[in-house]
UniProtKB/TrEMBL annotation:
This is Formate transporter FocA. It comes from the Bacteria. The chain crosses the membrane at residues 37-58, 70-92, 112-135, 165-184, 196-217, 224-243, 249-267. InterPro entries: Aquaporin-like (IPR023271), For/NO2_transpt (IPR000292). It comes from Gordonibacter pamelaeae. The lineage of its organism: Bacteria, Bacillati, Actinomycetota, Coriobacteriia, Eggerthellales. Keywords: Membrane, Transmembrane, Transmembrane helix. Its main location: membrane. It is found in: Membrane. PANTHER family: FORMATE TRANSPORTER-RELATED, FORMATE_NITRATE FAMILY TRANSPORTER (EUROFUNG). It is a multi-pass membrane protein. Gene3D superfamilies: Glycerol uptake facilitator protein. Belongs to the FNT transporter (TC 1.A.16) family. GO terms for cellular component: plasma membrane. One of its GO terms (molecular function) is formate transmembrane transporter activity.
Length: 273
């Protein structure tokens, strides 16, 4: 299939995808506040469901390390599958709005306003999902090992050094935005699901930092540690959790912007040049 043909069942060309990303950014910037926030809440909850699935699998300590990381990463893919296939506003994916900003189609005010609103909506959805998970006593599964995993995952994230954390977040959203890019190139639901599996599984398996996923991991681990007494006292520090969200957010913006601007420069249409 020739570039720009736009016919058949093959994936869209990179130039077609870049235009599609820009068009989507314009639509996102024009979303009414209420609809945008609720859609962002859905995305936060979807990613939380992926995080729940990931921790459930990791709670089996009898599995080899590589198997745990790989299959756990595939389990986490549930979150982005739901976001891309069901439709929702995810902060890390919306970093690709830089393409439309670079072409002058969306002003910085609209881009930053969308990012701020979506980040808050993702946080609200993550906290709602956390409450549902705890009320459903998912943490009690496998003799309480799932709850211990929630706490250990949160404790590890809250104790990361700032440089390591930032660059883990850069790497994370580079892979996430590549997965989203594949989603834009896809023509069917099957294409989307298959296309995002490896990039998302890779970032999870490598222990990279995703700010929206961390909203769920850190809040759940903190609640279980402080209120539920799971794990050693003070295992999850509030200050460390807050610092994680700030640096992970900044790193995610940097990683996603690098991918978006590189593809914008390489494949933007003639009208943008």
């Amino acid at each position: 299939m020739q570039e720009g043909a736009g016919l058949g069942l093959e994936a869209l060309s990179p130039t077609e995808v870049e235009k599609r990303v820009e068009d989507a950014a314009c639509a996102k910037a024009a979303l009414p506040t209420g609809r945008c926030f609720v859609s962002a809440m859905l995305a936060g909850a979807f990613v939380a469901f992926g995080g729940m699935f990931f921790c459930l699998f990791l709670s089996d300590a009898t599995l080899p390390f590589a198997v745990q990381r790989l299959v756990g990463g595939v389990c986490f893919c549930l979150g982005l599958v739901l976001v891309l296939c069901c439709g929702a506003e995810l902060f890390t994916g919306n970093v690709l709005m830089v393409c439309s900003r670079a072409s002058g189609r969306v002003p910085w005010r609209a881009v930053l306003g969308n990012w701020g609103l979506v980040w808050l909506g993702n946080l609200a959805g993550s906290l709602l999902a956390m409450a549902l998970v705890l009320l459903a006593n998912v943490q009690g599964m496998n003799g309480g090992e799932v709850g211990a995993t929630f706490v250990s995952v949160a404790a590890a994230k809250a104790s990361l050094g700032p440089v390591e954390l930032f660059f883990k977040a850069v790497m994370c959203n580079a892979l996430v935005c590549l997965a989203v890019w594949i989603g834009f190139a896809s023509r069917t639901v099957t294409d989307k699901v298959v296309g995002i599996l490896l990039p998302i599984a890779a970032f999870v398996a490598c222990g990279f930092e995703h700010c929206v996923a961390n909203m769920f991991f850190l809040s759940t681990g903190l609640a279980l540690n402080v209120l539920g007494g799971v794990g050693a006292a003070g295992a999850v520090a509030l200050g460390g959790a807050a610092a994680n969200l700030v640096l992970a957010t900044l790193g995610n913006v940097a990683g996603g912007a690098l991918v978006g601007l590189a593809y914008w420069y390489a494949y933007r249409g003639k009208e943008a040049r």
